[in-house]
Design a protein that fits this description.
Number of domains: 1
Distance between the termini: 20 Å
CATH topology: Metallo-beta-lactamase, Chain A
Helix content: 10-25%
Strand content: 25-35%
Largest sheet: 8 strands, mixed
Number of strands: 15
Bound molecules: zinc ion
CATH architecture: 4-Layer Sandwich
Length: 269
Protein backbone atom coordinates (compact mmCIF):
# COMPACT_ATOMS: atom_id res chain seq x y z
CA UNK A 1 0.00 0.00 0.00
CA UNK A 2 1.38 3.38 -0.92
CA UNK A 3 0.57 6.47 1.12
CA UNK A 4 1.63 9.67 -0.60
CA UNK A 5 1.61 12.83 1.51
CA UNK A 6 0.25 15.72 -0.56
CA UNK A 7 0.03 17.98 2.46
CA UNK A 8 0.39 17.54 6.25
CA UNK A 9 0.86 21.04 7.69
CA UNK A 10 -1.33 23.05 10.01
CA UNK A 11 -1.24 25.92 7.51
CA UNK A 12 0.18 27.04 4.20
CA UNK A 13 3.54 28.42 3.09
CA UNK A 14 5.78 27.78 0.11
CA UNK A 15 6.48 24.04 0.08
CA UNK A 16 3.88 23.33 2.75
CA UNK A 17 0.24 22.42 2.32
CA UNK A 18 -2.65 21.32 4.50
CA UNK A 19 -3.86 17.75 5.02
CA UNK A 20 -4.33 15.45 2.05
CA UNK A 21 -3.02 11.86 1.69
CA UNK A 22 -3.30 9.86 -1.52
CA UNK A 23 -3.54 6.09 -0.99
CA UNK A 24 -2.71 3.81 -3.93
CA UNK A 25 -3.43 6.67 -6.34
CA UNK A 26 -7.23 6.32 -6.08
CA UNK A 27 -8.26 7.03 -2.49
CA UNK A 28 -7.86 10.49 -1.04
CA UNK A 29 -7.89 11.04 2.73
CA UNK A 30 -8.88 14.67 3.37
CA UNK A 31 -8.80 17.28 0.65
CA UNK A 32 -6.77 20.20 1.98
CA UNK A 33 -4.47 22.42 -0.08
CA UNK A 34 -2.13 19.47 -0.68
CA UNK A 35 -4.48 18.34 -3.46
CA UNK A 36 -3.06 21.26 -5.45
CA UNK A 37 0.23 19.33 -5.68
CA UNK A 38 -1.36 16.78 -8.03
CA UNK A 39 -1.16 16.83 -11.80
CA UNK A 40 -4.55 16.72 -13.58
CA UNK A 41 -3.86 13.15 -14.75
CA UNK A 42 -3.19 12.16 -11.13
CA UNK A 43 -6.44 13.81 -10.01
CA UNK A 44 -8.27 11.82 -12.69
CA UNK A 45 -7.37 8.54 -10.93
CA UNK A 46 -9.16 9.51 -7.68
CA UNK A 47 -12.47 7.71 -7.21
CA UNK A 48 -13.12 8.01 -3.44
CA UNK A 49 -12.46 10.56 -0.71
CA UNK A 50 -12.60 10.13 3.07
CA UNK A 51 -13.08 13.38 4.99
CA UNK A 52 -12.28 13.62 8.70
CA UNK A 53 -14.22 16.83 9.40
CA UNK A 54 -15.50 20.08 7.95
CA UNK A 55 -12.61 22.44 8.76
CA UNK A 56 -11.31 24.33 5.74
CA UNK A 57 -7.75 22.99 5.99
CA UNK A 58 -9.19 19.50 5.33
CA UNK A 59 -11.77 20.28 2.60
CA UNK A 60 -10.56 23.43 0.82
CA UNK A 61 -9.49 21.76 -2.42
CA UNK A 62 -12.43 19.41 -2.90
CA UNK A 63 -14.31 22.09 -4.90
CA UNK A 64 -11.24 22.78 -7.09
CA UNK A 65 -10.63 19.06 -7.65
CA UNK A 66 -14.19 18.60 -8.89
CA UNK A 67 -13.90 21.70 -11.06
CA UNK A 68 -10.74 20.31 -12.70
CA UNK A 69 -12.42 16.99 -13.46
CA UNK A 70 -15.83 18.18 -14.60
CA UNK A 71 -16.32 17.75 -18.32
CA UNK A 72 -13.61 15.07 -18.57
CA UNK A 73 -16.04 12.15 -18.32
CA UNK A 74 -14.68 11.28 -14.87
CA UNK A 75 -17.05 8.98 -12.96
CA UNK A 76 -18.85 10.33 -9.91
CA UNK A 77 -16.43 10.70 -6.98
CA UNK A 78 -17.68 9.09 -3.78
CA UNK A 79 -17.11 11.27 -0.71
CA UNK A 80 -17.50 9.66 2.71
CA UNK A 81 -17.91 11.71 5.88
CA UNK A 82 -20.09 12.22 8.94
CA UNK A 83 -23.58 13.57 8.27
CA UNK A 84 -22.62 16.86 9.96
CA UNK A 85 -19.59 17.26 7.69
CA UNK A 86 -21.66 16.60 4.57
CA UNK A 87 -24.32 19.08 5.68
CA UNK A 88 -21.62 21.70 6.21
CA UNK A 89 -20.29 21.06 2.69
CA UNK A 90 -23.74 21.27 1.15
CA UNK A 91 -24.82 24.36 3.11
CA UNK A 92 -21.62 26.38 3.03
CA UNK A 93 -19.64 25.27 -0.04
CA UNK A 94 -21.86 23.60 -2.65
CA UNK A 95 -24.61 26.20 -2.15
CA UNK A 96 -24.42 27.92 -5.55
CA UNK A 97 -22.96 31.00 -3.81
CA UNK A 98 -19.48 30.00 -2.70
CA UNK A 99 -19.32 27.25 -5.36
CA UNK A 100 -21.73 25.53 -7.76
CA UNK A 101 -23.62 22.51 -6.42
CA UNK A 102 -21.44 19.75 -7.83
CA UNK A 103 -23.77 17.16 -6.26
CA UNK A 104 -26.11 18.02 -9.14
CA UNK A 105 -23.64 18.94 -11.90
CA UNK A 106 -23.07 18.24 -14.73
CA UNK A 107 -26.35 16.33 -14.29
CA UNK A 108 -28.44 14.95 -11.46
CA UNK A 109 -28.11 11.47 -12.98
CA UNK A 110 -24.29 11.54 -13.11
CA UNK A 111 -23.05 14.27 -10.79
CA UNK A 112 -19.39 15.12 -10.11
CA UNK A 113 -19.67 14.04 -6.51
CA UNK A 114 -21.88 11.89 -4.31
CA UNK A 115 -21.94 12.60 -0.57
CA UNK A 116 -22.18 9.39 1.48
CA UNK A 117 -22.90 9.64 5.23
CA UNK A 118 -20.92 7.34 7.49
CA UNK A 119 -20.97 6.72 11.23
CA UNK A 120 -18.36 6.03 13.88
CA UNK A 121 -17.74 2.30 14.17
CA UNK A 122 -18.87 1.58 10.61
CA UNK A 123 -16.71 -0.48 8.25
CA UNK A 124 -16.83 0.33 4.55
CA UNK A 125 -15.19 -1.40 1.59
CA UNK A 126 -13.42 0.79 -0.95
CA UNK A 127 -11.66 -1.15 -3.71
CA UNK A 128 -9.35 -3.71 -2.04
CA UNK A 129 -9.45 -1.82 1.26
CA UNK A 130 -11.48 -1.99 4.41
CA UNK A 131 -12.02 1.34 6.12
CA UNK A 132 -13.09 1.58 9.76
CA UNK A 133 -14.47 4.92 10.94
CA UNK A 134 -12.75 5.84 14.22
CA UNK A 135 -14.06 8.23 16.87
CA UNK A 136 -12.06 11.47 17.12
CA UNK A 137 -12.41 14.41 19.50
CA UNK A 138 -12.11 17.88 18.00
CA UNK A 139 -13.98 21.21 18.05
CA UNK A 140 -16.45 20.03 15.37
CA UNK A 141 -17.81 16.53 14.69
CA UNK A 142 -14.75 14.55 13.54
CA UNK A 143 -13.55 11.07 12.79
CA UNK A 144 -10.28 9.28 12.19
CA UNK A 145 -9.78 6.27 9.94
CA UNK A 146 -8.22 2.81 10.03
CA UNK A 147 -7.45 1.74 6.46
CA UNK A 148 -6.22 -1.75 5.67
CA UNK A 149 -5.92 -4.41 2.98
CA UNK A 150 -4.13 -7.77 2.80
CA UNK A 151 -0.75 -5.98 2.61
CA UNK A 152 -0.79 -3.40 5.37
CA UNK A 153 -2.80 -0.99 7.45
CA UNK A 154 -2.50 2.56 8.67
CA UNK A 155 -4.56 4.77 10.96
CA UNK A 156 -5.05 8.53 10.99
CA UNK A 157 -6.41 10.46 13.96
CA UNK A 158 -7.66 13.39 11.89
CA UNK A 159 -7.67 16.44 14.17
CA UNK A 160 -7.94 15.07 17.68
CA UNK A 161 -7.42 15.68 21.39
CA UNK A 162 -7.27 13.60 24.56
CA UNK A 163 -9.77 10.76 24.72
CA UNK A 164 -9.97 7.03 25.41
CA UNK A 165 -12.17 5.60 22.70
CA UNK A 166 -9.97 6.37 19.65
CA UNK A 167 -7.22 4.31 21.32
CA UNK A 168 -9.53 1.57 22.61
CA UNK A 169 -10.93 1.17 19.10
CA UNK A 170 -7.43 0.94 17.61
CA UNK A 171 -6.51 -1.73 20.17
CA UNK A 172 -9.41 -3.84 18.91
CA UNK A 173 -8.35 -3.65 15.26
CA UNK A 174 -5.44 -5.35 13.48
CA UNK A 175 -2.20 -3.50 14.33
CA UNK A 176 -1.24 -0.67 12.01
CA UNK A 177 2.06 -0.31 10.16
CA UNK A 178 1.81 3.47 10.38
CA UNK A 179 -0.05 5.72 12.82
CA UNK A 180 -0.49 9.35 11.80
CA UNK A 181 -1.45 11.70 14.63
CA UNK A 182 -1.82 15.47 14.72
CA UNK A 183 0.10 17.87 16.93
CA UNK A 184 -0.33 21.59 16.37
CA UNK A 185 0.87 23.19 19.63
CA UNK A 186 3.59 23.18 22.28
CA UNK A 187 2.99 22.06 25.86
CA UNK A 188 3.04 25.74 26.89
CA UNK A 189 0.15 26.40 24.54
CA UNK A 190 -2.07 23.80 26.14
CA UNK A 191 -4.79 26.37 26.93
CA UNK A 192 -5.26 27.25 23.25
CA UNK A 193 -4.78 23.60 22.37
CA UNK A 194 -7.63 22.68 24.71
CA UNK A 195 -9.87 25.26 23.02
CA UNK A 196 -8.92 24.12 19.51
CA UNK A 197 -9.08 20.47 20.64
CA UNK A 198 -5.74 19.47 19.16
CA UNK A 199 -3.05 17.33 20.72
CA UNK A 200 0.05 18.87 22.26
CA UNK A 201 3.10 16.68 22.99
CA UNK A 202 2.40 15.78 26.64
CA UNK A 203 -1.26 14.97 25.91
CA UNK A 204 -0.30 12.91 22.87
CA UNK A 205 2.27 10.94 24.89
CA UNK A 206 -0.37 10.28 27.56
CA UNK A 207 -2.81 8.93 24.95
CA UNK A 208 -0.20 6.87 23.07
CA UNK A 209 0.32 4.96 26.31
CA UNK A 210 -3.25 3.68 25.95
CA UNK A 211 -2.18 1.62 22.92
CA UNK A 212 -1.35 -2.01 23.65
CA UNK A 213 1.44 -1.98 21.04
CA UNK A 214 3.91 0.52 19.60
CA UNK A 215 3.30 1.24 15.93
CA UNK A 216 5.55 3.57 13.91
CA UNK A 217 4.25 7.03 14.87
CA UNK A 218 4.21 9.92 12.38
CA UNK A 219 3.27 13.46 13.36
CA UNK A 220 1.18 15.72 11.11
CA UNK A 221 -0.46 19.13 11.41
CA UNK A 222 2.65 20.95 12.67
CA UNK A 223 2.46 24.75 12.58
CA UNK A 224 4.03 26.50 9.59
CA UNK A 225 5.63 29.13 11.83
CA UNK A 226 7.85 28.37 14.86
CA UNK A 227 7.54 24.62 14.34
CA UNK A 228 10.95 24.02 15.94
CA UNK A 229 9.65 24.46 19.49
CA UNK A 230 6.88 21.92 18.89
CA UNK A 231 9.27 19.48 17.20
CA UNK A 232 11.77 19.67 20.08
CA UNK A 233 9.01 18.81 22.57
CA UNK A 234 7.70 15.99 20.37
CA UNK A 235 11.13 14.34 20.24
CA UNK A 236 11.45 14.71 24.02
CA UNK A 237 7.94 13.86 25.29
CA UNK A 238 7.34 11.09 22.75
CA UNK A 239 10.86 9.61 22.88
CA UNK A 240 9.68 6.05 23.73
CA UNK A 241 7.83 5.93 20.40
CA UNK A 242 10.71 7.37 18.31
CA UNK A 243 8.25 9.61 16.45
CA UNK A 244 8.92 10.79 12.92
CA UNK A 245 7.60 13.91 11.25
CA UNK A 246 5.37 13.29 8.26
CA UNK A 247 6.86 14.94 5.17
CA UNK A 248 4.96 16.66 2.40
CA UNK A 249 5.86 15.01 -0.90
CA UNK A 250 6.95 11.73 0.69
CA UNK A 251 5.62 8.37 -0.50
CA UNK A 252 5.50 5.68 2.18
CA UNK A 253 5.39 2.05 1.08
CA UNK A 254 3.46 0.23 3.79
CA UNK A 255 3.99 -3.45 4.30
CA UNK A 256 2.95 -5.60 7.25
CA UNK A 257 5.97 -7.89 6.81
CA UNK A 258 8.74 -5.44 7.43
CA UNK A 259 7.75 -2.44 9.42
CA UNK A 260 8.07 0.91 7.80
CA UNK A 261 11.59 2.23 7.60
CA UNK A 262 13.19 5.27 6.10
CA UNK A 263 14.55 3.03 3.38
CA UNK A 264 11.01 2.49 2.20
CA UNK A 265 10.29 6.17 2.04
CA UNK A 266 11.21 8.09 -1.03
CA UNK A 267 10.91 11.81 -1.39
CA UNK A 268 9.20 13.10 -4.48
CA UNK A 269 11.44 14.73 -7.03
ZN1 LIG B 1 -9.81 20.84 12.48
ZN1 LIG C 1 -6.83 20.70 10.74
Amino acid sequence: MELRVLGCSGGIASGQATTAFLVDKTLLVDAGTGVGNLLPQEMSKIDSILLTHSHLDHISHLPFLLNTLIGTGHPTIQVYALKETLEALQDHIFNNIIWPDFTQLPSIATPSVKLNAIEVGQTISIGDKQVVVLPAFHSVPSVGYWVGNDQAAFAFSGDCSENDVFWETLNNLPPVDMLIVDNQYTDEEKAISALAKHYYPVSLAKDLQKLTYQPPVYISHLPTVNADAVITEIYCDLAPWSPKLLKTGARYQLSAKDNLSDAQMSAES
